Amino acid sequence: xxxxxxxxxxxxxxxxxxxxxxxxxxxxxxxxxxxxxxxxxxxxxxxxxxxxxxxxxxxxxxxxxxxxxxxxxxxxxxxxxxxxxxxxxxxxxxxxxxxxxxxxxxxxxxxxxxxxxxxxxxxxxxxxxxxxxxxxxxxxxxxxxxxxxxxxxxxxxxxxxxxxxxxxxxxxxxxxxxxxxxxxxxxxxxxxxxxxxxxxxxxxxxxxxxxxxxxxxxxxxxxxxxxxxxxxxxxxxxxxxxxxxxxxxxxxxxxxxxxxxxxxxxxxxxxxxxxxxxxxxxxxxxxxxxxxxxxxxxxxxxxxxxxxxxxxxxxxxxxxxxxxxxxxxxxxxxxxxxxxxxxxxxxxxxxxxxxxx
Amino acid sequence: xxxxxxxxxxxxxxxxxxxxxxxxxxxxxxxxxxxxxxxxxxxxxxxxxxxxxxxxxxxxxxxxxxxxxxxxxxxxxxxxxxxxxxxxxxxxxxxxxxxxxxxxxxxxxxxxxxxxxxxxxxxxxxxxxxxxxxxxxxxxxxxxxxxxxxxxxxxxxxxxxxxxxxxxxxxxxxxxxxxxxxxxxxxxxxxxxxxxxxxxxxxxxxxxxxxxxxxxxxxxxxxxxxxxxxxxxxxxxxxxxxxxxxxxxxxxxxxxxxxxxxxxxxxxxxxxxxxxxxxxxxxxxxxxxxxxxxxxxxxxxxxxxxxxxxxxxxxxxxxxxxxxxxxxxxxxxxxxxxxxxxxxxxxxxxxxxxxxx
Lengths: 357, 357
Ligand SMILES: CC(C)[C@H](C(=O)O)[C@@H](O)C(=O)O
Ligand SMILES: CC(C)[C@H](C(=O)O)[C@@H](O)C(=O)O
Fold this sequence. Notes:
The structure is a homodimer.
Chain A: E1 3-11, H1 15-26, E2 34-39, H2 43-50, H3 56-63, E3 67-72, H4 76-79, H5 87-97, E4 102-108, H6 121-124, E5 128-134, E6 145-149, E7 155-164, H7 165-181, E8 185-190, H8 196-208, E9 216-221, H9 222-231, E10 238-241, H10 243-254, E11 264-268, E12 276-279, H11 296-308, H12 313-328, E13 331-332, E14 342-343, H13 346-356
Helix pairs in contact in A: 1-11, 1-13, 2-5, 7-8, 9-10, 11-12, 12-13
Bound molecules: 3-isopropylmalic acid (2 copies).
């Protein structure tokens, strides 16, 4: 195959400018194969234009695409909206409707940014963790849920933290497979000392270890994992955990790296459908439209897309190498500036990657 | 009142030795008022002796006590037990049966330990956070819960993440009251962008802010809070959150401080019943019985007991001041040793505090 349909979801805030910088940076690849970009709406932009954060037209285009690049969603403008008209709701609908149950979030510390973290250099130097987060189950999607009024007039709010065996199996399989391609160490994070849902999680993860005799499996309770990530992050290779614990721990892990502006992610699951590749950072409405945003997380997300969804690992390596060279040469957007770097804007950063590519 | 019945729960691992060191350190106070210590069983020790991690006899003595000092529970010996025979289950039963809905966990960085954290000194210096964690609700105690087998043969595990309005009100009141006595800034942590239970939580916390016009209320999503705690912890004064998010975030916050061996906690709720005061660290079976444990977290927990449960704030100040002096003089157990300190064991550390007191 030498032509791919890639849906672009620029979303809100800095989304459009980092999307433009990414498309520009990838331009040299077009001589090797064709990336047909098509834009669609999600999040606040979609609410404003179509009255829904995940319009049917976007879903239809998604299903017809080979892969999806998402920039960022949300902003204060929509924060007070009812739940069905909030940008986040669009994101959750996308994950669920496209079957994106596996979220891969690497936290790899680049040598140039060792000093940029709030943790000591000797703690973060060499850290290279892959957090595998389950993305379509757990308390995010569990039912029953809601806010009820009791006969007494008191309100009660509830969400069901629930996992089916097959949901744990398929995410564990992803995690074991990732571990096999990396350091062969897998840490499963749960709260099995308190929660039944975690007990099932742990049972299933242990049972599956029979199929992966080479992978060293360990378990940590989520509270301990939150400590260990800061105390001694180099102990981790691959971590696997549920949706809500993964939400918390992957964001915590991202702080090991100097800037959120460098962190890509991949959301996958359905072998016949598109995966979604997006930066871990938000839409940063405060700097939107000022050419200050860092497009590297989105460019690195595009590299993950090439590797995991389009079967183009060599080109993924090329994109990552280009980013490395640009970092080496000391070009830096606002968020990663340090002594001796040359300040560039969002657009120029895209140009620099393009040149190296 | 000049005589208090204090139940001691030494528990497992290093529990007995830090309990002995604490009782010894507090000895000088006995000339001011009487602390009648009575020991009882909890955790693994109680399972071994009575077949239950929270025996009826312990509950009865607890109810007859003014306050409770708990050391630590758990160990590999009981890890494989069924849930009802696990040490943690005793802890949860204690919290629930004694109505201990409010868990206060200070994370205050002592100047002597600024360099002991894995975070940079300039990040942790001056950090002084109080985490107020709800302790008897949420997914910890919510029903329905369990592991079922579906007709298909597949298993499903679930726990209900649930809060009643009155549960949120009473923990929020504790948090606002604590904030009024401190820096008057309160950050409520939830996941209201996704969870109904968090939406109710947030509504109630906001509604109650009317009664506390002087307190500056902010909100963070739990994933963001996990980042902000590392990125810039000095932004926080008091944090209030639910049971599971509090479990994770309070442990994360404890890493800002150089050693878990310094961190006390208080669990309260029922004005007519005893509160429970305990170190944040675990039972450390690997160093149990070797006189290596740090008793300061338990001694500082006793100070919290004096302040919050026995109405003896002056004596609480005295105990904390004594610990400060001992730290200043450079006495240090294994976990907090640094350049220029004098190594002491658990027992001797208790003696040093006693001398200063
Ligand atoms: C925006 C929010 C719904 C989302 C989540 O909680 O999954 C975000 O925090 C993330 O991690 O992608
Ligand atoms: C031991 C465990 C049940 C307990 C909890 O999760 O509450 C512990 O982690 C704590 O924070 O006191």
